[in-house]
Structures are given as structure tokens and as C-alpha cells.
Amino acid sequence: MPQPPEPAADHRAAGPADLVVEGCTALVHDAAGEVAFAEDAGIVVRAGAIAAVTSAAEAARVPAAERIDARGQIAMPGLVNCHTHAPMVFLRGFAEDVPVEEWFNDWIWPVESNLTDRDVELGALLACAEMIRGGVTTFADHYFAMDRVADAVAATGLRAVLGLAYFSSQGPAGRDASLEFALRRAGGADGRITTCLAPHAPYTVTDADLRATARLAREHGLLVHLHAAENREQTETSLARHGRTPVEVLQRCGLLDTEVLIAHGTGLTDDDVALLGRAPAAGVATAPRGYLKFGWDPTPVRALHAAGVPVGLATDGAASNNTLDVWESMALTALVQKSAERDASWATARQVLHHATTQSARVVGLGDRVGSLAPGRRADLILVDLTGPHTQPVHDLAATLVHSARAGDVRTTVVDGRVLMRDRRLLTVDVAEVAAELAPRLAALTERGHGRRIQRYDT
Amino acid sequence: MPQPPEPAADHRAAGPADLVVEGCTALVHDAAGEVAFAEDAGIVVRAGAIAAVTSAAEAARVPAAERIDARGQIAMPGLVNCHTHAPMVFLRGFAEDVPVEEWFNDWIWPVESNLTDRDVELGALLACAEMIRGGVTTFADHYFAMDRVADAVAATGLRAVLGLAYFSSQGPAGRDASLEFALRRAGGADGRITTCLAPHAPYTVTDADLRATARLAREHGLLVHLHAAENREQTETSLARHGRTPVEVLQRCGLLDTEVLIAHGTGLTDDDVALLGRAPAAGVATAPRGYLKFGWDPTPVRALHAAGVPVGLATDGAASNNTLDVWESMALTALVQKSAERDASWATARQVLHHATTQSARVVGLGDRVGSLAPGRRADLILVDLTGPHTQPVHDLAATLVHSARAGDVRTTVVDGRVLMRDRRLLTVDVAEVAAELAPRLAALTERGHGRRIQRYDT
């Protein structure tokens, strides 16, 4: 076991800390950036940032406004949900056991033409509750009425990377609105909100709009978050229609020269992976549950890893994925990657923890702010209880975390130094109240008799 | 929604019931045996059996020694873990990220030569705690020192189908001991223990021993529980060495004429499936997590379904599977089957609930006793809380149960009418005490320097 890193020089001299976590085992990253565990550790938080990861004894001597006794628990960086449509929890279990074309054209896109701002806000609040309970501290969201999602983020205390989705079928207004939102809400919620541009996908946004998006991203220093090569069929259709893969389309449009977050990528070719490997700031979000459900290939994580492309964990929206459980995405990434490669020695527990921490932080453009427990990082951390019968005994802490622990084992969730859940009790959102307001709205929300849809899926 | 079935005629006349569960939605099976839900239901329990599944109002009028207010909860048959090695939780996370040959030969089988009876009993107690917390009410176990497992079953209140495993390398003593155990402990723990014969597998037990096992099974009316066609390589090796698949070996040895529980079957051929379809009482247990982890094919559930062979859900042992979470096996069965068949419309939530209930009960030989909430069945039931943010809202109860709910949402577990967990509190086993006694034993248990192993894996 490595020693905990040296405390930052000033952490004892600065008066009472805001929060001290004592007596945990801390998931840290060693000098090479690999996952390691520091036993009997303490974490000192000041002004929303980690001031020190030190020994439990040292931490015990630091006066603090709030203390958490975390003996027997693991402290780790909060999970990052690198691609979701948080409000869509209102459609959890609504469109089941159907292929993707039917899912979009007959269920989801007709229903989304009914959306009201209040539906989106209630969905976002419920989603935030679910994510806080599952140890997610940051989520990258790509949806409509994003001001309401931003409000939910502000209210619940989470961190988020928000982008207002658009299709070219909206005309120039869609792209303009995405930029206007990104500029207006950047830095909101005391800096917990960062923003991005959010074209839907190469099959719903024209090359001209993608080119304009790339220009705007460079001009304003914004991340671009979009779906691309979601499945093999999309890649094949793109090749047949345009002679280029979706990722080649992104490259031609200049998007690979920007900071770009590609959701899914299960249809990536070897050449696409090579292109992404040469891009300065491309990352991929993988949401394996939905790929199994739709019968898609997995994201080629091994090839991306070899090409140096960070791969972050995600859940997609709950309308397809049924949960926003990034803990499950972590386990499924290990399982599906071993299965796909027919190699039990690949996708080790430590590697998957690396995806869940520093790689996920990089993918959403927050690689220098979150994703590890280290001095100077924002204090986004979770405490995980491993005393349950399903996580005992512990032979290998990484394996216990990835393969035995569950989202429900997260006892405490902290974002920017603020405790959002303590001992499983949510402190910033009332689930019963949100669910009660949402329930009577569902009939109008799920009405499909009107014949409208927001878009047509035709890869 | 179907109406709840009529209450049994005598349930009001028999004096106070032992237990009444009120106000739940009950997962029942309709006249065709399909999964259905009865809203606002009540369940009356007498003498360890279900006396009635009726309306909440009717149940409220039945006097009872114990009542559970289950409003907002789902009552469903307790889950059945159709194939596990429960004590192996002591090796959870011990042998990770290695292929199956190495897993057996370099890790598990050397270590199992160190086993003491007390290790097995502590492992079994911890496993029972995990299963009770995850809503499992019956498990089919296949291991060593099974008297200690039977003791743990008696102590914790679970139901189990127990078989003492043997290899032909033990000589006649192994088979004799398996039979002696089966006859001696049958009907134990107030009838909650049933027993079986447990040859390890066709690659570790000779044809002569398998033939003798089939004879003994017929003579004593015993189920036979064994591993077969665990993976494709085993089938190929068997064909190369013997000119027959593992299932053809079972058939020639007479085992397909007995009640037989085949674990895994991921290497089944189409002809094997046809053979099983013609067998009078063959069932297959599928434990999908481990197959992903080892890079094996999935069990061919669709073909088995078409051939009329029941498929039950299982976890295998935690040394390979990391958990005894049958809830996860249920979700993974849906996901992996959709993925393997590349058909999102296959393995619907309702079908998978059917596997989890009546099919699993049949596979372990308890098809007439457990697996559904119906008058006359043993009162093995669980109450599941769907008020958490990750299970709200509910559009489709089957989908919510399979794809959104988690083992940790089980609030109450009842076996034979006795409450083993109430509101997440275990009533029959002290996890901290068991874990504390187990921890200092692990160094001796996992010592591999002695060069012994209980068997060699060579398919």
C-alpha cells in the first residue's frame, strides 16, 4: 500500500477546516496516476476543495466545522456520469423490449413533443436524487429545457456539465439557443455548472451546422458533447450515404480539433479509433447497459485504451437504461469488456476504477478539477460502506468495489465540500414530494395519439 | 390487471393467522401460469404456508399473530438461487482477472485443500445473510462439508436443496458420502432442507460413477445436481476425447431419465438442447455474471425455452461471481439474452420474472412447493420497496422490478412464514460476528505454498 500523499503545506495553519473525514481507506492515485489505496486516512476540506489527504491521526488534530467518522468505509472520488439525459427518468420503463428505431420513432420522440418545462425540472430533480444516492457527483447532461436542469443542479448541489441539445431540423434557432444557453449558464451554481455545445448527432445535424459548432466551440472555449457512431448500423449507413463514417464526418467538420465528448461509439471502426487517438482532446462515454438491451456491440474500450483515448462511464437516459446507476456501468464495463475480448485478464478491477475516476473526469472536461482525491481538487467525494454481508470478506479492495459493492452501499455523498447525502439520507431533495407532483403529469406526458414527433430516427 | 385469486375457502374460519401482509401489490401467476400483478392485495399465512392471496380489505379482517403493512411495496415469491457454492463467499475477490484454468488450478483448488468445517460453516452463514438481504429464500448448494451448510440453513431459516459434491478421484467413498448425506439430512430444518446427489461434472466423474449415481437417484427419488457443458471448450474436449458431448454422456449414463439440475450449460449444442427437451425432468441453472467474466458464451436460454426446458437463475459461488445477488442474475439474464440474440424484443421483463419464479422453483425440484404466491404453497415471499428515486415513476411494474430495482430494495424476507429480515434488519444471523470470526482465518485458508490441490482442471 502506498503512503498517503504529503498534506498541503498550509492545511494546519488556516484555522478550522469546513469538513474533515476521518479514519477511512482512501482511493487515491499514485505518482503514475494509477489507482491505489491509502489506509487509515483522513481528508481535510476547505472552501469546497480538498486541502489534504493525510493520515487519520493528523486529520483528527485539524479543527473543523463538520466531521465525519468514516471508519470501515472507503472514500473515493465521486462518480461521474459522462453522458445522460437526466430528466428522462420520467420515462423509466415506458418503452421496453423494442428495437431502437421503434423506441425513437414510436415511443420517445412522439412523447417528447409533449414535454413541459416543469416535467423536465421534476425529472431532473428525481434524477439528481437518484444520482446522489448512487454516489454520482458530476453528470454530463444533453437534453431540452436545460435551464430547468440547471435549476435542479443549483437546488440539489450536484456538479454538472450541461448542453442544450439541437437538431438541424430546428433551423438556425437550435444552434443559436445551444450557444446562448452555454454562455449564459457557464459558471453557474457557484461554479458547479460548466456548459457545452450539444448538437444531437451527425445523422440529425448537417455538416454545415457541425462546422459552425466547431467554430463556436473554438471561439468560446467550449466542450462539444454529441452522440456519434452509436451503433454499427449508423456507421454502415453513414458510409453508404456519405462515403464516410460518423467520426470521419466529425473530423471533416473540425470537431476533432475541439474538446469533444462522443457518446457511445459502439460503431467505431479501427480507423475511427486512430482518428480519435490523434485528436487533442477527444473522449468517449460508454453506457453498456443500453447496448446489451438494444443488442448493440460494446464500445471498443480496449482499442480506445491502446490509442490513448479516455473512456468515461455513463448511463445514458433512464428511458433506455432504466437507471442512472454509474456503479452498475462500472461493473458492466468490466464484465462486458472481458466477454467481448474473450479475455478474463483484461478490464481488471483497477483499470475500471481508473475509467470511473480520472478518465471520466477528463472525458467531461473536468480533468483538472475532479476525479481524484488530491489537494487542490474540488471536494467531490463519496463514502462507501463495505461491512455488508455481500462485500465481506475483502481480499482485494478494487475487486470488492467493482464486482461486489453496489450503488446502495454509498452512505455519504459530498460535492464541493457540501454533504448532499449523509448515512443514506438525502439532504437537498425530497423524493416523495417530487414523485407525487410527477405522477399525475404522466398521462399527458406519455400521450402518443397526436401524431407529432420531435424528430425521425433514420440513422 | 387481473383480479387476485379467490381466497382458499377455509382461511377465515381457522382462527388467527400466523402472519398477514396487507396492502401490497402481489406478483401472482394467472391461470395460464404467466406473471401478473394483483393490486391492493393481502396475503394470509398459516402454518408456514400461504392460506390466501386476497384483497387488502379482506386481509385486514383476518386476525393474525403478526401483521406487516406493505403499502407501496411489491410482494413476490422469494428468489431461488438455483446453483451456488455458498461457503465460497470466503474467497470473494480472491482470484480475479484470471482465465478459468488458472482460476481452478492455481487458486481455488489448492486453497480448498485447506478447508476446515468451521470455515465452511462461517462462509455458509455469511452467504445466508447475503441471500436473505437480497431476497433469496431458497438456494441449491453444491459443496463440501455440507453438514455445516445444513446447520447454517437450520440456524438462519432459509430453504435449501443441498448436495455433497464428489469427484471420482475420491474413489467410491465420495459417491457413498454424497448418498449418505442426502438420505440423512433430507427433510431437515422442519422440512426446509431437501437433498440431492452431487457429482461434480462429467469431466471429473467417470461414466461408471455417473451410471451408479443415476441408479441411486431413481432408487431413492433424489434430484441430481451437477455441472455440465459449463463452456464451449468442455464440449469440444468431450467430443474430441469421447466422441460425445457432456450432455450425451449424461444421457448414456441414464442421468437424463432422472430429475437433473444442470449448472451453466453455456456449451450446449443444438442436439444437447433437443436431448434435454425430451428428458422428463431436466432443468438448467444460468449464472450469467461469471460467463461474462470468464469470456464464455451465455446459456442458450432461447433454445432451451423453445424446447420446453425450464431455466432457473443462479449466481454460482462468490469466488467467481463476487456476489450471491440473484436480482442481478435476473437483470443480466434479460440483458445478455437480448444482446446474444441481437433482439431487443426477446427476454422481456415478464419472461425473466417467470424464470425467477416458477421456472427456478421447478429447476431445483420444488415446483410444487415454492415459486408462486398461491394458496397451498410454502410462505416464501419478499417485500420490495419501489419508493426510491431509482424506481420512480413506475410505467411498467415488470420492467421496474427487472431493470431498475436492486437486491437492496428488498425490505422484508419471509421463509416458511417466518420473517428472516424485516425492514432490512436481519433477524437470524449476526453479520459482524461472523465476519469477525472469519477474518483471522483467511491467511491459513488462502495459503497456496503447500503444493496440494483437491483436483486438477483439465475439462
UniProtKB/TrEMBL annotation, chains A, B:
<feature type="domain" description="Amidohydrolase-related">
    <location>
        <begin position="74"/>
        <end position="419"/>
    </location>
</feature>
<dbReference type="InterPro" id="IPR032466">
    <property type="entry name" value="Metal_Hydrolase"/>
</dbReference>
<dbReference type="Pfam" id="PF01979">
    <property type="entry name" value="Amidohydro_1"/>
</dbReference>
<keyword id="KW-0378">Hydrolase</keyword>
<dbReference type="InterPro" id="IPR011059">
    <property type="entry name" value="Metal-dep_hydrolase_composite"/>
</dbReference>
<dbReference type="InterPro" id="IPR006680">
    <property type="entry name" value="Amidohydro-rel"/>
</dbReference>
<protein>
    <submittedName>
        <fullName>Amidohydrolase</fullName>
    </submittedName>
</protein>
<dbReference type="InterPro" id="IPR050287">
    <property type="entry name" value="MTA/SAH_deaminase"/>
</dbReference>
